[in-house]
Amino acid sequence: MTILQFFLWSLLKVAVVTVVMLLGVAYTVLLERKLVGRIQNRWGPSRVGPFGLLQPLVDGAKSFLKEDIIPTGVYRPLYLLAPILALGCALISIGVVPFGAPNIGPGPLDLFEIANVNVGLLVILGVTSIGVYGIALAGWSSNNKYSLLGALRSSAQLVSYELALGLSLVGVVLRAGSLNLRVIVEQQATNGMLSWNLFGGMQFVAFFIYLMAAYAETNRSPFDLPEAESELTGGYHTEYSSMKFAMFFMAEYGNMITVGCVATLLFLGGWTNPFGNLFGTSNNILVRALFPLFWFVLKVFSFLFLYVWVRGTLPRFRYDQLMNYGWRWLMPLAILNIVATSLWLAYR
Amino acid sequence: MHLILFLVFAGFCLGGAINLLIQSHPINSALSLIVVMVSLAVLYLLLGAEFLAAAQVIVYAGAIMVLFTFVVMLLNAGREARTMGSRAARSIGFPAVVAILAVIATVILHAQSLGVARLSDGLTNVPGQTNIELLSTVLFTKLLLPFEVTSVLILIAILGAVALARHDDTDPQGSAERTDK
């Protein structure tokens, strides 16, 4: 494959994945509004299109057409940089996520992953940790006490829970012996659901820690203190309007999807079939290409469903509870999990 | 390709470092430092050290610099007054910096024990071996003692921070009085 071919293929993959990701973000918002609506015994959006299915498109058009207000007291360069940083980091990390079966496509090309990186997991963690700056700078540059409080809460929360998040993944990495996401998935692929890290790998403690830390990392309920409406009006994005507000909104949902993808890859067997080889394997190229995609999307969807369900069910934590929970419970639990996993691997 | 990327990110790195010194606002300086860290990570990546690059981004750009900006935001540090220093500092300082950098560069270039690293070369020539394996083998065999001593050092630093930040619980009467006031 020549450099030019490689470049064009990569460009195509990036374009397709970005469009799918943005559509996914738009429809995750709709999913959340519909589901929370049903939990609260109302319908949610139902006027635009059948079942309200065109609502995200109308919302997007609305954000574009709204007046863009920049308050006079803000520190302009950072105020403008912050939403770009937040959304950029949310979209970049999907680049190392493998979402389909390998070895399908012309020649050495990997059709279902933008970049197969040796340290894929660390790349995702790194990009997420850069994403904090979007929120922190937004709060600081807005010149507003609510924004600043939201940003401070958010940075403290992200730094605290990133530790638990990283440590919860160590067990999985120990089992796979690699940081490459493809290798981690293939290590769980032998017996379908029974060899997933969540069940057969006995990593359910790690999954629980990951789940909690992921909710905190994406600023979602019950850890949504950085944007607690009743205390901080809007948190870090109080002073943002129009498309800039929408960019923060999209970044939050983009992060949710990424977190769901990582959970799927690390604990739920990625794109592999949950039934293993129970129903035999097919040689049809279409079946081999499309079924993994289906399983992957289904798993990510159920993770997002859980996200919304939790939001509709649990009340918000108090700030000291949040910190105590992260430092005194999740982190020691994660370290215990690492020790237990290492002992088990050494014993075997 | 590698050379172009190297030049671009080395430029970013130097530009960020100079901007760090020029800016008078602490938060701009902190952000320039982040640019330096991330460009350094890309340079590591070009040398084939992908683990080091990822660790650089996660630890330095993602954790330590967040604390920097956190402190700047919390203290609401303002713009600093710009001074050019004394004439003596200017006339001696800049040549001195150039001389020291030149000496350091010569020493590094002439050190025999440092091998030659080429862009686009990996750290390892064995196929299938990642540089995480390479790094951990070195860390846990050759450099085990320094590695463990470093971790003890960090533990001591943590204990020191806890001891400094701890409330004085030995005198409950006194602390109650303080909160009353």
Q: Can you tell me about this structure?
A:
Chain A is mainly alpha-helical. Chain A has one domain. Chain A is 66% helix and 0% strand. Chain A is globular. The relative contact order of chain B is 0.07. Chain B is an all-alpha fold. Chain B contains 7 helices and no strands. Residues 174-181 of chain B have low confidence and may be disordered. Chain A binds chain B through residues 3, 78, 117-119, 122-123, 125-130, 132-133, 136-137, 139-140, 148, 151-152, 155-156, 158-159, 162, 166, 178-179, and chain B through 1, 27, 31, 34, 38, 50-51, 54-55, 57-58, 61-63, 66-67, 69-70, 72-74, 130, 132.
Low-confidence stretches of chain A: none
Q: Encode the helix/strand succession of chain B as letters.
A: HHHHHHH
**Poorly predicted runs of 5 or more residues of chain B:** 174-181
Shape of chain B: globular
Shape of chain A: globular
Structural class of chain B: mainly alpha
Strand content of chain A: under 5%
Integer-rounded radius of gyration of chain A:
21 Å
Helix content percent band of chain B: over 70%
Number of strands of chain A: 0
Q: Largest sheet of chain A at a glance?
A: none
The biggest chain-chain interface is: A-B, 30 and 23 residues
Domains of chain A, number:
1
How many DSSP H or I helices of chain B?
A: 7
- What is the terminal separation of chain A in angstroms? 43 Å
Helix content class of chain A = 55-70%
* Global mean pLDDT of chain A: 84
List strands and helices in order, with pairings.
The complex is a heterodimer of chains A (348) and B (181).
Chain A: H1 3-39, H2 55-65, H3 76-92, H4 120-141, H5 145-176, H6 181-187, H7 204-217, H8 229-232, H9 242-267, H10 285-313, H11 319-347
Chain B: H1 2-22, H2 26-46, H3 50-75, H4 87-110, H5 131-140, H6 144-165, H7 172-180
Helix pairs in contact in B: 1-2, 2-3
Any key phrases for this structure?
heterodimer, A: 348 residues, mainly alpha, 0% strand, globular, B: 181 residues, 7 helices
